[in-house]
Amino acid sequence: MAPMADVQSYLLTSGRYRAEIASTGAGLRMLEFDGVPLTETWKVGEKPPLSAGLVLAPWPNRVADGTFTFEGTEHRLEITEPSRNNASHGFVRRVDWTLVDRSPSRVEQSVEVGQHEGWPYALTVTVAHELTEDGLLVTATAKNDGDTDAPYGMGFHTFVRVGDVPLDDCTLELSAGTRLQLDPVRNLPNGPSVPTAGSDYDFTAPKSLKGVWLDTPFSAELPDPDGRARHYLRSPDGAATVLWTDREFDWVQVFTADPAKDQAYPDRGRALAIEPMTCPPDAFNSEIDLLVLKPGESWTGTWGMEYRAA
Question: How far is the C-alpha of 188 from the C-alpha of 10, rounded, in Å?
Fold first, then answer.
């Protein structure tokens, strides 16, 4: 794979944590605790496999047929997933972001979304990755720089792991009580959200991932007393990589990279993404949890990761 030009990688350290953040897509390239990998990684300057670690904005996931109507005006986006005839993952994951601020434990980057086919809205997106002794804190902000209301959604394509433990030896626990039904061909909603309790999608208690394949949006998150909803990938000895979200990111898309689906993660095979999202797939059409930013208005959300020893 040919290297990408002029990609920066910012090393962050705090206590026993270490991370690297790429300038392209403001991507989380690596997170580890005492040398234990908590995310999948890729080589600096190469295209991240399966969009690993990248920011998805001004919408996450998919827009059906690249078409949506907002405040009475129809918009037609470029089709970026031709096999399913969808506009996928927004505009900012493959562009270099501008460095705003940098310290040994924190990097802040921003990007102007810009004008695109079917997208007349002026937005600036800023993402700060910060390491503390408790783990990774990600703070995302979007501001409407235009003079009309603008629709907005955001996600992060975060792959998680617990050291070198194979995925099939791990369990998954999700703080989520519902899943949105999807058409398996186009990965678009084809029904309402339904309870996960008692179904194959019930991960409210730790459940083995052996042979499990998912590409599923979950919601109805159940926050802990501190307001954070936590999702756990655990190894057999009980150690866990924990991804948490605040209430602004009330959805998570859980995706399994799998060689059997012709989507292997390089050098790992099966891998798991837990993707914080503000809204579900095709929210520009369903308007489910769609954010609307008024001129000059800003939005902020946070999520993070930590390691729990056995």
Answer: 35
Residue 147 three-state SS = coil
Q: Which amino acid is at 63?
A: V
Closest CA to 26 of 43, 4, 11, 9: 9
- For the chain, how many helices (H) and strands (E)? 1, 27
Question: Which amino acid is located at 5 in the chain?
Answer: A
Q: 58 Cβ partners below 8 Å, 6+ apart?
A: 90, 91, 92, 113, 119, 121, 123, 125, 142, 150, 151, 152, 153, 154
Q: d(Cα 198, Cα 290) in Å, to the nearest integer?
A: 29
Radius of gyration, alpha carbons of the chain: 18
The tens digit of pLDDT for each residue in 164-216 reads 999 999 999 999 999 999 999 999 999 999 999 999 999 999 999 999 999 99
Alpha helices for the chain (secondary structure H): 283-286
Tokens of 270: 């099966």
pLDDT tens by residue, 88-123 = 999 999 999 999 999 999 999 999 999 999 999 999
Q: What is the pTM of this model?
A: 0.96
Beta bridge partners of 36: 33
CA 196 to mean position of chain CA atoms: 21
| Burial class (CB within 10 angstroms; exposed 0-12, middle 13-18, buried 19+) of 232 | buried
Do 61 and 217 meet the contact criterion of CB atoms below 8 Å apart?
yes
Please count the residues of the chain.
310
Long-range contacts of 71-75 (CB under 8 A, 24+ apart): 71/148, 71/149, 75/118, 75/119, 75/120
Q: Which residues of the chain have pLDDT under 50?
A: 1-3
Q: Six-digit token pair at 97? A: 């972001």
Question: Which two three-digit tokens encode residue 36?
Answer: 């234990």
DSSP 264: P
Which residue, chain included where needed, has tokens 């678009």?
188
Task: Say if residues 151 and 121 touch (Cβ distance below 8 Å).
Answer: yes
Main-chain dihedrals φ then ψ at residue 260, nearest 5 degrees: -65, -20
